Amino acid sequence: xxxxxxxxxxxxxxxxxxxxxxxxxxxxxxxxxxxxxxxxxxxxxxxxxxxxxxxxxxxxxxxxxxxxxxxxxxxxxxxxxxxxxxxxxxxxxxxxxxxxxxxxxxxxxxxxxxxxxxxxxxxxxxxxxxxxxxxxxxxxxxxxxxxxxxxxxxxxxxxxxxxxxxxxxxxxxxxxxxxxxxxxxxxxxxxxxxxxxxxxxxxxxxxxxxxxxxxxxxxxxxxxxxxxxxxxxxxxxxxxxxxxxxxxxxxxxxxxxxxxxxxxxxxxxxxxxxxxxxxxxxxxxxxxxxxxxxxxxxxxxxxxxxxxxxxxxxxxxxxxxxxxxxxxxxxxxxxxxxxxxxxxxxxxxxxxxxxxxxxxxxxxxxxxxxxxxxxxxxxxxxxxxxxxxxxxxxxxxxxxxxxxxxxxxxxxxxxxxxxxxxxxxxxxxxxxxxxxxxxxxxxxxxxxxxxxxxxxxxxxxxxxxxxxxxxxxxxxxxxxxxxxxxxxxxxxxxxxxxxxxxxxxxxxxxxxxxxxxxxxxxxxxxxxxxxxxxxxxxxxxxxxxxxxxxxxxxxxxxxxxxxxxxxxxxxxxxxxxxxxxxxxxxxxxxxxxxxxxxxxxxxxxxxxxxxxxxxxxxxxxxxxxxxxxxxxxxxxxxxxxxxxxxxxxxxxxxxxxxxxxxxxxxxxxxxxxxxxxxxxxxxxxxxxxxxxxxxxxxxxxxxxxxxxxxxxxxxxxx
Length: 718
Description:
The chain is an all-alpha fold. The chain contains 42 helices and 3 strands.
């Protein structure tokens, strides 16, 4: 080479070094034009050096150019622009640009072997950053990056103390493979075809934990949803080393190791079997107490998968101490931890002894809490676990005492699958609530612990079988306990709401099991004259004066209709022989409706006159018409008219209306307490509702008692 050309080359080096100084990027803005110019200068510098060959290229300058490209590529928004400027084509050749043979120790530091490794390290870093965007992954692979990266991995001796730069090269190469293969099944297979898996498995044994961690991270990505890769990783002997890594105190190391194993066993029963045979179970359980939340999460997920390997593994996992840390995880602030802990417990809860152990260790309350959360996955995993726990009769009393039945039914579930699961759990509770389980619950119902008593009696109202209702609520006074909760002025709103809901459920159940009552209709009159004789003077033998208007009637029909008319016409009253009888307290339209019912047995009670017709029906003892009126008034109840209609039922001896009033009150608990309370004093609503139900309590108890007695009588006769 001539002196002039050598001088020119050195001058170019100095100029490039000035351009690539450490503060160059800081001095310039990051506009697209500026970044494009920088990227073009950097790729040009790399291409120029590649043309010169490894002997002539200035390695320090190459390193700085590659480093500057990496700095630009760290900004994901600039990656596309960097790629457009040719960064891939300029960077990939650097992976194999230098040879690793011994070099002349007399060379300047800037041209030493270490500088070559620095260039390779920066090149790996650049490619890893560019590969973060999936659209560039295939371009990088097609440019020949994979053979170069794999060759770098092969050159490293894991059991030899490496230089820090050499270790960095390997870490960056493994990281680049990780990013290239991320969510890219084709490149995962190409890495295997290029022989990348065996050296990565070998690197797991590196004395440098950072290298081992990077290798594990790459294997974790390669194993995800790729059966061929998973099988090769196992056949290369990775499992023993990975299992040892699980015991490492290095958080990053055991996190990557448990991630690799998790991906290996996913949907691969034979690998799961080998992992367990190689002794992974205990170290995975140990990771449940790791300081790394991600390791805990992965370990819980893995245990959930192990639990499905063989039936006896569910018991083994629990026996080896997995349940206590999993329950601790249920209360963690991290939602992902709670989700995976619930997932694992749900799988473990498919064993009956495990079911009892999970409850005994305090897993019940946090699982119910998760069902009440607002996260779909948390709700579903917890609901599935509780479904398992409810399979053990020994857990039923505990679930009831924890308020589980009410909380499950009241939970606002997001997914339909979660709703179905909770519904099945409640059904399972209902089915188990018999025999000794029912006796346990009845014992709790009379506990001196008020909260336990409250939760038990409300649960029994929701869960008990029809045949047990009379025993629970009448003979054993469960109804009295429920009523006392509702009318307690000092009750908190939640307790009163639950008790009111339980009473309503009990009313529904008692009505469903009692013999069905027909829709109330008057009995067919003993003397049927027909509508044409209503207010018809033909054959009329008595006339009523209503609001100054005559109303023609027939004694034969009236005598057959009620005791009141019989007393009027057969007794010693003045009406007996009177041909015209004044009716001072009933409107003409109301009187006509009453007469229509007497003559035909049919009457449409209009809502606007139902109260007056009821009053008339009570006065003349027309029970059929009275029931029709009670039904009509009950159908038009509102929260504002409720108390007035209740008083009406008392005044006119209308028990059916009274029952409708009390059921309406229970159905509309929220509205009534809100209307009678205030934002400043919500307890006013509780007190007002308690007072209202106190007045109605006898009617409610009579109704429930009567319905359950009918059911018992029906059972006796059948």
